[in-house]
Structure formats: structure tokens, C-alpha cells
Amino acid sequence: MLRAFIFDMDGVVTNTAVAHFTCWKEVFDGLLRSRSGDDFGGDDFRDDAPGGDNLGAFTRRDYLDHVDGIPRLAGIRAFLESREIDLPEGDEDDRTPATVRGLGFLKNQCFDRWLAQNEVPTFEDTRALIDVLKANGVTVGIFSASRNANRVIESAGLGGFFDAIVSGDDAEEQNLAAKPDPAMLVETARQLGIEPRETAVVEDALAGVEAGSRGRFALTVGINRQEDHADSQRHALRAHGADLVVRDLRRLLTADGSGLRTVGNLPAVWDRQDELVSQIGSRPLAVFLDYDGTLTPIVRNHRKAHISDKMVEAVAQLAEQCPTAIISGRDLDDVRDRVGLDSVFYAGSHGFDIAGPGGLKMRPEGAEKFLRPIAEAEQDLRRAIEGIDGAEVERKTFSIAVHFRNAAEEDVERLESAVDEVVGRHADLRRSRGKKVLQVEPRAEWNKGKAIEWLLANTRLGERDALPLYIGDDITDEDAFAALADDGISIVVKDGGYITTADYALENSADVGRFLVWLSECVEKQAR
Fold first, then answer.
1. What local confidence, expressed as pLDDT, does residue 54 receive?
2. How many Cβ atoms sit within 10 Å of the Cβ of residue 89?
3. Same domain for 359 and 506?
4. Strands 285-289 and 324-327, how do they pair?
5. 58 and 75 in contact (C-beta within 8 Å)?
6. 323, 286 in Cβ contact below 8 A?
7. Of 163, 296, 381, 464, which shows the fewest CB atoms inside 10 Å?
8. 335 in the same domain as 283
9. What is the predicted pLDDT for the residue at 55?
10. Could you tell me if 450 and 345 lie in one domain?
11. How many other C-beta atoms can be found within 10 angstroms of the C-beta atom of residue 310?
């Protein structure tokens, strides 16, 4: 159960991102212009373009990649390194762009001017979420790498609103490492008196969601407020450790806005049949299904998760009525052999390995580069968990699953530490989690949601403006739910009380089977 939520300030609670970007751009463009003279590309680069070359203007992509959510001086160093610019650190009283500290002073001076002339706005969706949390007895904290944090909070009219505040000044006094180190987030939870395992993190920066993941918080939510490259940012937030990514934090609330949107309080499909039929209307359906926990019950031994003949028949019947795909964390060959239907599409390894009718085969560009680090990590993990009874390493083509369903509860923290240590040695890999399993996956902008988007764009699954429908049972399926957020139907199979962005719920895998039969009948009636 979640007892606390902690929020990053800039870009999550307060809307100062434009001011920060404007000030960073003023400072960095001044530096770049002074170094490049007539070659400066400032007038030729859009603010929302990818990072420019060494002479190009500071862009929004630069902002997101190098300075957003990072302490001022660390962000300056990261940006300068990206442009291969070497400046001395300088002294605290430097006031010119000739040093790192001088640039920091100029940026802060610019933001001070803005703060003196403006009242800081807040995001309505964040206020709505916090109001519901506080009404339900959930404590809330706020953290920021900014040394102006307390001034910003007061300007926004939020003084006394949070149960704990950790600012850039606090981080300096306590020598807290910068994100993606989780130190600042852990300190915020500590001040609330609540363990990270009972605390959710809400962040908009890549370094911030990575900190939430590294800190082993109960839930890390990425808020994606980008307009010009929203899809790229959504996948980047997931690749850096966000469990959920939403465009609006009210998506985490129930329809009536009274509580958190958990698996347990979603409307049951059977109570909303007319609503579903209305949503489908005359549009053709494209159905996507998870395997474990959806088409089969969860079992203690993952090797024994066999699909029943009755379920295979239900999937086959549905595939006759509308294109159907199975999207699984299992290896492609494994899930394809278990289901045994040639009429459906398959995506294994959380979407990295796609196959389908007509000899379809697809792996995302550059996927093979991850095979070597995954192989190295596999050997490291086998050595690291030696001696932990009930823990098992399962190698898949593009990921590694570390199962601990049969491990003792007191060994789980040791297991997580071992996995984190191994992943920390491989920059190309990241850790994610599922039900009693830790996943080691490529740090790439690809996942179940991306695989669904590809299948809709490149196969008959997306023909004739098809309406996608996805059924899954785990936090790993939230990528798929996010992909369908603007146009699609998301259904979660109940198991646990975690927060979800799904629309409806089914009770168990047997309920899934009944729903697939009902869905086939609906599509058949639609075709008459």
C-alpha cells in the first residue's frame, strides 16, 4: 500500500520549465556565440530540434538531456561535455561565462529576474492529484535540485502545502548526490518517516525517473508534458526507469476523482458491456494479448505456465474474426510454441522480437547491439545470485528474468542489490520489475507499447482505422496501456492493488477466456 507520494518541483508541480529553458538558452547561446562568431547556428536551429552540432544553438532536446532536473553546475558540465567544450571550474564569485561557476551565476541571475517579475504557476493536474492524496490520508513531499526551491514554492502559493521539502540548499548541506543518484528522493521519504517501498515518486526528468528506479521506490511515475516530441519522451522516460508514463496526472485517479486508480477499483468489463460495444461501434478491432497471467494463470514455476486447449480455441476463434497478436515478455520461440497458432502475430522479449503470418520477422533497428551486454550480464547475474535459494536466472534473447517467486522474503533485498550492482556495470541495460521477477532489459526506446505501435503501422492489425484493444495483468503491460491511451481500450486482469492506467478489469485468466468468446461474438454480429 502506498503511504506517501513525493514530487519533483519544476515541471511536475510548478510550471517554471519555460523560464528555466529561456535562461539556460540565454546563457549557453551567449557562450556558443562568443566561441563561434559568424559560424554560430542560432538562427538556423529550432528550439524543439534535436541537439545541434558543436556550433548550434541550445535546444529543448539539450535541455531535456543535460540540464533538466540536474543541479545547476552538474547540468552545465554535462552540456559543455556534449559540445566538447572544456572550461575551468572557476571560483564562487565568478560572474562571467568563462568558467562553469560563472555560467551558473549568470543562469541563476536570469532566473532571479524572472522570479521577481512573475508569480509561479502550478499544474492543475498535479494539484488535483495532491488534493485527492491528502484527502485520503496519503502524505506528500516535494524535492528539487534548485536552490531557489523554497522561494518558488512560496511564489506558487504552496507554503505549508507539503509535509516535507528537500531543496538544492539541503542537498548541498547534507552532501546529497545529484540525480540519477536517489539520495535526494530517499531523504524526502526519510523526512516523511516512510520507507521508499511504501512511497511513489512523480518525475518529469530522465535523471529523476532513473533515481526513482535506483532508489527502489514502490512506484515511479513519469509525467510527460512534452508536446513536440511526446512519443520519444514517453519511451525515454520508460527506458530510464518509469513504471508508468502519463500525459496528465489525473489519469491516476478514478473516474469520479475520489481516489487512486488501482486495479481493484476499476469497473468490471461485465458491468460496462454496452459502453464497450458503443466504443467499438463500426470500427474493426485489433486485439493484443499478454500471455502469463492473462492467457494462463500465474504459477510458481514459470515453465509450467501452459495455455489450456479451451483458451487456445478462444484465441483461434477470435483471430478468425479480427487480427490478433500476443505480446509477451517470454522469448519469441517460447510463446509461439506454447500457443501454437499460425494465424496470430507474436512479439517476444517485451516486443523486441516480432513474427507473424506470411513469414513476418522484425527486430527494432540496433537491437543486436544489446546481445553482448545481455550475455555478459547473464553470467554476472548467475554468479551474483548463487546461494540465494529459490532465485533463478532465465535468459531470453533480448532480456534476462530474475525470478524470486520461490525465494524467501528476507532474501529479496539482497537479490535486488545483486541485480542493481550488475546492471550498474552495463550502461546499455536497465532494470524493470514485474510480479515476483526483476527484468534486465536494453536501455532503449522500445517496449510492448512500441511494438504495438509498429504492428498497427506496418501490418493488417492497423488496417481500416482499427481500434486496438489490449489485455494484460502486470506493471510491464503499462507500456501497452500508454500506447492506447488516446485511441484504444485497455483491460487489466486483477492481481494486486497497484496503480494502473487501464480502463476496465477482468477477474482472472478464466474471465479472459470468457471475454474473448464474447468479443468474437460481438465482432461477428458487427460484420453481419
1. 65
2. 12
3. yes
4. parallel
5. no
6. yes
7. 464
8. yes
9. 64
10. yes
11. 10
- Across the strands, what pairs with 392? 403
Specify whether 329 is located in the same domain as 471: yes
CB atoms within 10 A of CB 230: 13
CATH number at residue 219: 3.40.50.1000
Contact 147, 127 (CB under 8 A): no
Show pLDDT as tens, one digit a residue, over the chain (528 residues). 899 999 999 999 999 888 899 999 999 999 999 888 666 665 433 444 444 456 688 998 899 889 987 888 999 999 999 999 999 999 989 999 999 999 999 999 999 999 889 899 999 999 999 999 999 999 999 999 888 899 999 999 998 999 999 999 999 999 999 999 999 999 999 999 999 999 999 999 999 999 999 999 999 999 999 887 788 888 899 989 999 999 999 999 998 999 999 999 999 999 999 999 999 998 999 999 999 999 999 998 999 999 999 999 999 999 999 999 999 999 999 999 999 999 999 999 999 999 999 999 999 999 999 999 999 999 999 999 998 999 999 999 999 999 999 999 999 999 999 999 999 999 999 999 888 999 999 999 899 999 999 999 999 999 999 999 999 999 989 999 999 999 999 999 998 789 999 999 999 999 999 999 999 999 988 876
415 shares a domain with 459: no
Number of structural domains the chain divides into: 4
148 domain residue, yes or no: yes
Residues 391 and 436 in one domain: yes
Place of cell 523554497: 150
- Told to judge if 290 belongs to the known catalytic residues of this protein, a careful annotator would answer yes
Report CA dihedral (359, 360, 366, 367) to the nearest 10 degrees. Answer: -80
Phi and psi angles of residue 403, each rounded to the nearest 5 degrees, phi first: -85, 140
What angle in degrees, to the nearest 10, is found between the helix axes of 206-214 and 183-192? 60
| Listed residues 218, 252, 286: the one ending a domain | 252
343 with 380, same domain: the answer is: no
The residues facing 439 across adjacent strands are: 401, 432
Q: Which domain range does residue 192 map to?
A: 4-14+121-252
- Paired with 141 in beta bridges are 6, 164
- By the 8 A CB rule, do 348 and 416 touch? no
Q: Are residues 337 and 413 in the same domain?
A: no
Residue 261 lies in a domain: no
> Is residue 257 domain-resident?
no
Residues with Cβ within 8 Å of residue 477, at least 6 apart in sequence: 290, 448, 470, 492
Mode of pairing for the β-strands spanning 429-434 and 392-395:
unpaired
Residue 432 and residue 441: Cα distance in Å, rounded? 7
Provide CB contacts within 8 A for 517, sequence distance 6+: 314, 317
Question: In this structure, is the dihedral angle defined by the CA atoms of residues 66, 68, 73 and 74, taken in order, positive or negative?
Answer: negative
Point out the catalytic residue in the list 10, 68, 204, 290. Answer: 290
Instruction: Give the end of a domain, one of 252, 279, 295.
Output: 252
The DSSP element (H or E) to which 402 belongs, if any, is strand 400-403
User: Is residue 355 situated within a structural domain?
Assistant: yes
